[in-house]
Design a protein that fits this description.
Layout: E1 9-14, H1 18-29, E2 34-37, H2 46-49, H3 70-75, H4 85-98, E3 105-106, E4 111-117, E5 122-127, E6 132-140, E7 162-165, E8 180-184, H5 188-200, E9 203-208, E10 214-216, H6 224-232, H7 234-243, H8 264-277, H9 293-310, H10 314-320, E11 332-334, H11 337-340, E12 346-350, E13 356-359, E14 363-366, E15 369-372, E16 375-378, H12 387-390, E17 394-395, H13 402-405, E18 424-426, H14 439-459, E19 465-467, H15 469-484, H16 513-525, E20 531-533
Parallel strand pairs: 1-2, 1-6, 2-3, 4-17, 6-18, 7-16, 8-9, 8-16, 9-12, 10-11
Antiparallel strand pairs: 4-5, 5-6, 13-14, 14-15, 19-20
Bound molecules: ligand NA7.
Length: 534
Amino acid sequence: MTVNNPYDVDAIVVGAGFGGMYMMHILTKHGYSAQGIERASDVGGTWYWNRYPGCQCDVESMEYSYQFDDDLQQKWEWTKRYAGQAEILKYANHVADEFKLRRHFMFNTSVDGATYDDDREIWSVSTDTGKTITARFLIMATGCLSTTNIPDFPGMSDFKGDTYHTGNWPKEGVDFSGKKVAVIGTGSSGIQAIPPIAQQAGELTVFQRTAAYSIPAQNRPLTDEKQNSIKANYDEFRARGAMSPAAFGADFAFNMGSVLDATPEERQATFEEFWNYGGFNFLASFGDLSSSLEANEFACEFVRGKIREIVKDPATAEMLMPDTVLGCKRLCSDDGYYETFNSPHVHLVDVSEHPIERLNDKGLVTNGTEYKFDIIVFATGYDALTGSILKCNIVGSKGLALKDKWAAGPSNYLGLMTTGFPNMFTITGPGSPSALANLITGIEQHAEFITTLIKWSDAKGHTTIQADQLQEDQWIETVNTRASHTLYPTCNSWYLGANVPGKPRVFMPYVGFPDYSKKLKQVVADDYAEFTFA
Ligand code: NA7
């Protein structure tokens, strides 16, 4: 380590969601000093902000939880198969209390700049509270889905009613009773929020640009019997989860057979079985749904058939039937989404051909028609994966701005480090399995990898760790090649950045958690030979 190189802390960790909390825990446990910075008033990240009605995780709670501490995973009791936002936030708070994490964070503070000083080999991070902190390492735990995307409709400020974004929901909740409400967007958030909003609202109009596939979550209380049987062999259960493509689904019945080899009766029975099991598992009903368009179409048609059965008005049912590849955009899971459109006070407006033109003082206008509302809910998603990183105005070695380096899309090595930005790490960043896998598992993997790497580098007396340009180029090629063997690139998803106007169209996550894990293990076994140290 360089002498005469004062810095405030060893590491700055940006974000106090599950990523930042665990990163902080493990760094401090290993004797490093660290300062956390979080824009919210408390821990929880995504689960702090997404308080919209109906919000729940689409990964089962026994898997969407930390495994680093056996006492924690044994003692915590989940109440439901899929935990709702309030329960997950309670869990995040419990972890913060148990491991005394809050003392390491400055809350209500946003990073507004981070600059690397080549001479001093330190990062200098400035905040909106006027405080500047220096550190050897900068660790971005800013989350994959934290920067909200609100379309820039003309007349936004003219609307006299209330507006909310699902990802920035008021703590005190919203009273929709008797109100005329609009929901714009039918991704996972819209699909979860629409049924409970409909239950309260006087009238609800949903504006849909792309119909989404949704599978009933079949959520239910988690029985003691089920919970105890998993806890009795939790390590084994976690290991099974880590072996599956998205690092969850330890108890999924993956059917590896081809839908093309099945008889029509077998197909129907299998899809029905997986539909009844609920949620994401539907994608595992046959082994070729994610790789063959022909196979995928059978699954699409099955779900369209379900929509036809559930939704009584044929014109509404028709509008709700997606024509994209199933699973290309993240598969949604719901509690009574399609059924909601059978209520006479719920309306669906297709804005695929006639986009929303503008907002005005009373509501919004599309296809020349004005719709009047008291409340407009934006369920319009996020500037995913890169938005929150780029918002921090990061400037690396020799004045290179990250937004310039990533102008044509994010590029990095292992989704962890990008050349030209020494000692900077991204947790579950683009180029890693990130949002295509169980995020808590990915977070633990990254936080442990980063800590071990820093310790190794320090033990060798190095002061800087960098990604190597050649390795980075090859990594990005690998990420792209893997995506090209799937059906993911066939639609306009946030995985591709296609939901944000002007964002480069690049498939960002690495497909396949088990191969990624193998790669990280190999890198450690090879003494990090693909990194550059100085
Ligand atoms: P998503 O999945 O990005 O969904 C956003 C929705 O908003 C989607 O239906 C969009 O239509 C719609 N949208 C976005 N902009 C517009 C405009 N200008 N007009 C009309 N409709 C629009 O975000 P979510 O919050 O639902 O889910 C994000 C993730 O959070 C989810 O995958 C889970 O991992 C948790 P589009 O499909 O782009 O045509």
